[in-house]
Amino acid sequence: MFSPFARRVVAAAALATCSLSAFAATEILIGDAKSQPESMAVGPDGTVYAGSASSPFIYRVKPGATTAEKFVDVSAEPAVNYFLGVLTDPATNTLWACQQTPVPDTKPVQRHTALRGFDLKTGAPKLRWNLPGDNTVCNDMVVGPDKALYISDTVPGRIYRLAPGAQTAELFSDNRLLSGIDGITFLDGTLYVNSVVFNKLYRIPVTAGKAGAPEDIWMDAPVKGLDGMRAANGKLFVAENGSGKITQLEINGDRAHVTVLKDGLKTPTGVEPAGDTLWFTERSTGKVMSMPLPSL
């Protein structure tokens, strides 16, 4: 016989297990299996936004819906276009996105890319800033404590900063260690970036508004293909596109403890904590999925 207290504990554990199982099963097909959702973001009302790396669309999934609808459509532009990073910025009612335009007849393929800003509610265009250079990859972005937008440019290995209210960004950091930069986020007011090419994690020190040399953060387990990265609950969460994992990184000085939260995925590229949920993209299957966000 269980005591009343023991019965309550068992019941709570069973409820938690059921909730966890149902939670972990959440998945939404974005468009179709070939839509390649590379990055995703969640709005303040729970709306999910996913950019497509194979088509000129950003999709939207409203709260409670199980299917995606086209929200941003740039198919009328003359060239082929698709999207990488997306980010919601509720304070300015903006959906930020990295738009890619491959340059025809180039081998290897070169790209002209642009930071795009769209109205978070209607999808109407608000801003377009073309990254400087003949071959660029606007990959991801994050809003900093100073309310500025920080943008990663993968091919030349740069970070740009768009000041609040500005229409053009300025070069913030240009360092050879930033080659292959992809994910970018702030953790407790400190800027962190990763390299999808070299499987590295860096902290970017900032003094008087100026970026210093990237500081290498040693990870205590192998990682492969570090991609989208976001912060929550004092930790970093990153998608490893090369190993099919969603990983948690706990920073302690110049070291990071690696914890695998989910593996066996097919090219996860984006990750987004929202409330008690950790969302992520599985680019190879065209899906956006979710799991419980670790709280400790």
Keywords:
296 residues; Methylamine Dehydrogenase, Chain H; 1 helix; globular; disordered N terminus
Q: How would a textbook summarize the main sheet?
A: 8 strands, mixed
CATH architecture: 7 Propeller
How many structural domains are formed by the residues?
1
Q: Which range best describes the helical content: under 10%, 10-25%, 25-40%, 40-55%, 55-70% or over 70%?
A: under 10%
The order of strands across the largest sheet is 14-15-16-19-23-22-21-20
What fraction of the residues are assigned to beta strands by DSSP? over 45%
Q: CATH top level?
A: Mainly Beta
Rg estimate, integer Å: 19 Å
Going by CATH, the homologous superfamily would be YVTN repeat-like/Quinoprotein amine dehydrogenase
Quote the average pLDDT: 91
- The CATH topology: Methylamine Dehydrogenase, Chain H
Low confidence ranges? 1-25
* Structural category: mainly beta
- Kindly state the number of beta strands: 26
Give the termini distance in whole angstroms. Answer: 33 Å
Oligomeric category:
single chain
Task: Report the total helices.
Answer: 1
SSE string, helices as H and strands as E: HEEEEEEEEEEEEEEEEEEEEEEEEEE
The backbone outline, from C-alpha atoms, is: globular
Structure overview:
By secondary structure, the chain is mainly beta. The protein has a single domain (28-292), classed as YVTN repeat-like/Quinoprotein amine dehydrogenase (Methylamine Dehydrogenase, Chain H, 7 Propeller). It has 1 helix and 26 strands. The chain has one helix at 4-24; strands spanning 27-29, 37-42, 48-52, 57-61, 69-73, 82-89, 94-102, 111-119, 125-130, 138-143, 149-153, 158-162, 170-174, 181-187, 190-195, 200-204, 206-207, 210-211, 215-219, 226-232, 235-240, 245-252, 255-262, 268-274, 277-282, 287-292. The strands form 6 sheets. The protein has an 8-stranded mixed sheet with strand order 14-15-16-19-23-22-21-20, with no helix packed on it. A hairpin with a 4-residue loop joins strand 11 (149-153) and strand 12 (158-162). Mean pLDDT is 91; it is low at 1-25.
